[in-house]
Amino acid sequence: MALQQFVCSFTLVIIFLCKECGSKPGNSSSIITGQDATPGSWPSYAAIVIVGFQFGGSLINDQWVLTAASFIPLDTLTEWVPTVYLGGYNLSGSNPNQVNRTVENIICHPEFDFTTLENNICLLKLSAPVNFTDYIQPIYLPSENSTFNNECSSWIIGLVYNSDGTFTKTLQEAKVPIVENNECKGIFQGSYPKITENMICAGDNDSCLFTYGAPLMTKRKSVWLQSGVLSVSACGAFPSVFTRVSPYQKWISDTVTGTAPKFFTFTSPDNSTSPTTM
Length: 278
Ligand SMILES: *[C@@H]1O[C@H](CO)[C@@H](O)[C@H](O)[C@H]1NC(C)=O
Ligand SMILES: *[C@@H]1O[C@H](CO)[C@@H](O)[C@H](O)[C@H]1NC(C)=O
Ligand SMILES: *[C@@H]1O[C@H](CO)[C@@H](O)[C@H](O)[C@H]1NC(C)=O
Ligand SMILES: *[C@@H]1O[C@H](CO)[C@@H](O)[C@H](O)[C@H]1NC(C)=O
Ligand SMILES: *[C@@H]1O[C@H](CO)[C@@H](O)[C@H](O)[C@H]1NC(C)=O
Ligand SMILES: *[C@@H]1O[C@H](CO)[C@@H](O)[C@H](O)[C@H]1NC(C)=O
Ligand SMILES: *[C@@H]1O[C@H](CO)[C@@H](O)[C@H](O)[C@H]1NC(C)=O
Description:
The protein is mainly β. The chain is built from three helices and 17 strands. It has a single domain, classed as Thrombin, subunit H. The strands form four sheets. It has a six-stranded antiparallel β-barrel with strand order 10-11-12-16-15-14. A six-stranded antiparallel β-barrel has the order 3-4-5-8-7-6. One 2-acetamido-2-deoxy-beta-D-glucopyranose binds next to loops. The site of one 2-acetamido-2-deoxy-beta-D-glucopyranose has 2 residues, from loops.
């Protein structure tokens, strides 16, 4: 059962991309990829590898990674313990700043529902803390009253799944527009999944392939904050669906041990924010 779920998730590693928000890409007729991310530009990115399959996550303090629940093996087969890579993930082999960890504990949301993808969020406790470097830094999270409206300032990162069945060799990045929830509900009406307040949609017509669990991020001043966790990727007229992070502030705070993750309220348009450290 767990294997089926796992493989099923894997075959759906698809997401929308929009290289230049709002504008159409010049020439692409097939898969539109993101662009290579400069090493060190996304220091919170966590590459999660489970029996060779690639997923995404993000570091939220020195020992915890936030990701999706839908691809996490539900049984305890030891060979499926994820390996988490921080500080860069270059499949071509050069990873001078990389640190790896196994996972000591997996805590997915107790009300995660695989059929609706409600509460598709999971926390991984690394086998040991990591030291922060220029290449390894935690990301900030939005507190529960945050709002992300129609806007064009969000980024997704991850490895892109190529049409030949391989992943891109290095981390890709792309700017995507947020699709406001009521609009997204309309787009998904009668389709899967049913969009709820615990989800956030992003992407447009320009589709591509990314890694499940990977972060959707917005910049506030010099700080990056994670608004979503990739839950459902889509192609064509549908945006991708992310688990909205802000409703889970309390669950995340209650679950994570050690240094508390940093939360702040993000409102969109972003001119009324006040940082709070919780
Ligand atoms: C589209 O591709 C053709 C052939 O590769 C190239 O000559 C042209 O400049 C491209 N156009 C754009 C807008 O990128
Ligand atoms: C990945 O590693 C290869 C081989 O060392 C190197 O040529 C390339 O520049 C690296 N790319 C990134 C984005 O780190
Ligand atoms: C993890 O990092 C250590 C030290 O750099 C390295 O020896 C080991 O091969 C790495 N393990 C994996 C699974 O990449
Ligand atoms: C983290 O930094 C401390 C202090 O510099 C050092 O003692 C420790 O070995 C480092 N840990 C790792 C895993 O690099
Ligand atoms: C969110 O807003 C409600 C109503 O304004 C308020 O009562 C609550 O304290 C806020 N929560 C946080 C975490 O700021
Ligand atoms: C997708 O592109 C088509 C053709 O350019 C356009 O008619 C349609 O409105 C677009 N859909 C969305 C959701 O942007
Ligand atoms: C904040 O945004 C609103 C709506 O866009 C705008 O009317 C207002 O002038 C902005 N305030 C500041 C201080 O920038």
